[in-house]
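ok, trying the design again with the full structure, not the truncated one.
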């Protein structure tokens, strides 16, 4: 894909999401749209992430250590 085509697609997507959230065309609760990012937060997703984090604490610590070492 050419860089110009990619930028046009990203720009159109960003404009579409901004229009949806600002003009309330759909019932979207809690969106955050900014230049270069889009967030949609839900309580259900936060609960799933919390459960995953509690289950594999040793695994997450190992992954964190690998990330720190590779970052250095």
């Amino acid at each position: 894909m050419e860089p110009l085509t990619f930028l046009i697609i990203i720009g159109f997507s960003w404009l579409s999401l901004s229009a949806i959230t600002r003009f309330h065309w759909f019932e979207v609760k809690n969106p955050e749209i900014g230049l270069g990012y889009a967030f949609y937060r839900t309580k259900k997703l936060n609960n799933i992430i919390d459960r995953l984090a509690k289950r594999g604490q040793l695994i997450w610590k190992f992954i964190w250590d690998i990330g720190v070492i590779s970052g250095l």
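Keeping the full-length input from now on. The longest strand covers residues 31-34.
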